[in-house]
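Risk register update: the risk of archive-format incompatibility is retired. Evidence:
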Amino acid sequence: MASENGLIASGDYIKHHLQNLTYGQNPDTGVWELAHSAAEAKEMGFMAFHLDTLGVSFILGTLFLLLFYRVGQKMTADTPTGIQNFVESIIEFIDENVRGSFNGKNPMVAPLALTTFIWIVLMNTMDLVPVDWLPYLASLLGIEYLKVVPTTDPNATFGMSIGIFILIIYYSIKEKGAGGFAGELLFHPFGKMMLPFNLFLEGVNLIAKPVSLALRLFGNMYAGEMIFILIALLPFWIQWSLSLPWAIFHILIVLLQAFIFMTLVIVYMDMAHQKEH
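Archived output:
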């Protein structure tokens, strides 16, 4: 019985840490309120808001903008500070990747790549915060649920990828014209005689871009968070022997997933500007 109770407690612990702080309309009362369980959150449907995902994303994005703005305002060529050198090295890294992968002319691509990279790095880095710290502090304030890693929420990753997808469609039509974009979908790669097959292949390829962006980032970060949660269920003396090596390894995942997302954004934007088809 003790092991069974322990198993139930472990299951409740995992469910609690994977539940977002959801705000939506209660289908029974019609009142907008916080969900008190996963079942209530599910019943609130698509129009519910994940306040923790939105809040943490907004805070991290604001910190990113304020930091880069402050460094930009105090930038000097005579005696650059350490933070200025750090910011400049990031910008140079992004600029090199854009110049190496993007052949068109669009001044928005580099800022877009910089924003996605830094923002995703910051959101992913929240995964390195011990899983109980911030939820415990939130519980002291009466907040029942708190997921602090926005990229473990598919709503966040799909939100970013859909935004990128809209830009891809916009610049594809802007650079190639509506006829050129339609012709690319209908006549590429096998010509006019294979129009339905072309449309199927190109349509799947187009839709796969935002789906792959969202699911790749979400899947990797969700898996990493799950491992941290499982380690937290172990005895205290085992936790540190496992969590520290995994956290060190996870730093690579944090940076790698942001880099992959940024690189694919640059590549997809380059494809949207190509006119040879």
